[in-house]
Each structure stands twice: as structure tokens, then as C-alpha cells.
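Example 9 (inverse folding). The structure is encoded as follows.
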């Protein structure tokens, strides 16, 4: 994410992001994304955990670990 992307999130609603290694790009502006495991809203300012491989966001490191373990098991 860069300074320009932060300004895009001021329009409200669900954002669509492309998750990269260490940063993300805003494809559709919004204020939040949904946690892939819990469905909880994550504000873009609070977004810290995601998977570039799965293109998913997670609300906590525990949720990211849970999802990673699930993908490794099967």
C-alpha cells in the first residue's frame, strides 16, 4: 500500500485488494475487507495479515496461522 492507496479507501464499503508480498494494491476503493476465516470486518488501516498465494485477508495472526495450517493439511 502507498499513500495514494490510503486516500482511495475513504469512499466507504467493501474494498477489493490485490495482496502482494509486504503490500497490497487497492482495486476497488472501500473502507474495509473481510477476514477469510471469520468474516469479520478489517479496516484498511488495521490490515496487517494476508496471503498473497490465496489472495485472502485475516483479522489476526492466529487466523492467518489457522488458515495456513488448513492449506498444508490437505
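The amino acid assigned to each position is listed next.
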Amino acid at each position: 500500500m502507498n499513500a495514494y492507496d490510503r486516500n482511495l479507501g475513504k469512499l466507504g464499503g467493501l474494498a477489493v485488494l490485490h495482496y502482494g508480498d509486504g503490500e497490497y494494491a487497492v482495486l476497488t476503493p472501500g473502507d474495509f475487507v473481510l477476514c477469510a476465516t471469520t468474516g469479520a470486518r478489517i479496516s484498511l488501516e488495521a490490515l496487517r495479515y494476508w496471503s498473497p498465494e490465496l489472495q485472502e485477508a485475516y483479522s489476526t495472526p492466529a487466523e492467518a496461522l489457522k488458515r495456513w495450517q488448513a492449506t498444508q493439511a490437505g
